[in-house]
Protein: Peroxidase-related enzyme
Amino acid sequence: MAFIEAIPEEEAAGKIKDLYEASQENAGYIPNYLRLFSHRPEVYEAWDALLKSIRKHLRLRRYELVTLAAAKELDCTYCMLAHGSVFLNSGEVDEAQLIAIAQDYHNAQLAPDEVAIMDYVQKVIAHASAVTQADVDNLKQFGLSDEDILDITLAATARSFFSKTLDALSAEPDAKYMQLTPELREALIAGRPYVAEKPSTTT
Structure:
């Protein structure tokens, strides 16, 4: 359970009501991360706009690898489960490779440039002030441009905001992730344990 109370659907008004209704219509449920932002829906909308502006410059595969690397270093179980699910459903990886990526991406049959990107992302998250020109030049050896490196960095640092907000206030991963196999769920748990809430009976 989150450390702060969300605005319930029956009391929602204005922007958060619109966001709740859109999520219910598009996804069939209201995710707990959205409930967490219910007192400040304008912040969620700004975050969503920022994320879209970053993601449009990244292929799905690269974006998800960056996000998983960042979420793992941030110890964010919610983001690991969410983006692991997206990555798996995209068809870019199978379950065995996704488990390997979550456990140790260095031994997950990724391309050398992908491993280098994930190494860079984890250093950005862990010690951004320790990143050097050599780290950036290493990425350029794999053909990444300045624009590519900026996009990767933006995706990583934006994830830091979102993951830390969810974990600081203990947003629970949604019940739908219980549909993942136990092996995959276990591999994607990075920080807080995952104990799914009981599915809501309201619509």
Summary: The mean pLDDT is 95.
